[in-house]
Design a protein that fits this description.
Blueprint (H helix, E strand, L loop, with lengths): L2 E7 L3 E8 L4 E8 L5 H19 L6 E5 L2 E3 L4 E5 L4 E4 L1 H6 L6 E5 H12 L8 E6 L3 E7 L2 E2 L31 H5 L1 H10 L17 H9 L3 H25 L3 E5 L7 H14 L9 E4 L6 H12 L3
Parallel strand pairs: 1-4, 4-8, 9-12, 12-13
Antiparallel strand pairs: 1-2, 2-3, 5-6, 6-7, 9-10, 10-11
Helix pairs in contact: 3-9, 5-6, 5-7, 6-7, 7-8
The protein binds zinc ion.
Zinc ion binds next to loops.
Amino acid sequence: MKTAIGVDLGGSHVTAAVVTDDGVIHSQHEHDIENRSFDAVIDLVVDVIEKAVYAAGSDVVGVGIGSPGNIDAASGTVLYSPNFGWTGAPLGERLRARFKQPVFIANDARCATLGEYTFGTGRESRDFVMLTLGTGIGGGIVADGKLILGNRWGAGEFGHHQIRATDGFVCGCGKIGCFEAQASGTGLIRHALAIAHSFPRSRLLDKSDIGSKKIRKAAQTGDLHALAAWKNFCADLATGLANVIACVNPDVIALGGGVSSAGDFLLDSVRARVDELTTMVPKGTTRLLCATLGNDAGQVGAATMVFHGKL
Ligand SMILES: [Zn+2]
């Protein structure tokens, strides 16, 4: 059995996992990221990889890294990452100088898609889309069993297709009403804030710990303010999902990220509207499912990239 290191580099922490080629994680090693400068992050990434290689205790065939941003998967250069404020950062070059094993680098959402497709919800699928509903919305496409990368490594950036171009929230990318501005975990909070004036007695936004999880749980227990926000959120999510079906026509769309913890409550809230908006292919033929690998998908997918020798 082969062993690789799969690294998930996020805006607030980096995790390196020891993964065998059956998709099983044997140990995880993590650092919080406080300084997002390129040199500081490189030091942390090198350190977690070294710890993971040591913990593996056997030959490691390579290191795979998923990082946010637009990444040239051939050179491993981070062309643009708004999360870190990096442009043209030579992540691949710097890490290849530090490790004797082959190093592969790709966008984190594409790594998560590959992991979920290979070992999670996508295992019996050939045409698969993964959407991670977290702070933003990451995505990836598998068509006829192959992960699609696009001309400049941008295929699957569903988070930045506009679904409310005139009356939506401002997106981190500068556009109005992007899918991730409306239907990510952050989007759910913004929906709750946008209608707060209609619920003057609501306690939903009272405390400083306001988060999408709190709103989701309140909606599940029937809180009127949370339910109204949830309804608007799900309407926008359904619009984006129907657009994904129109563009890709997958047999499975897997929803991951914190919001997907709602499980059937989430899926049951969007299915009917997705069907209404699906016009050119038979309704209901794309199965909406919750992803099963959770936060591990990125690490497992990054290691899978090593086992494949490419994305
Ligand atoms: Zn955007």
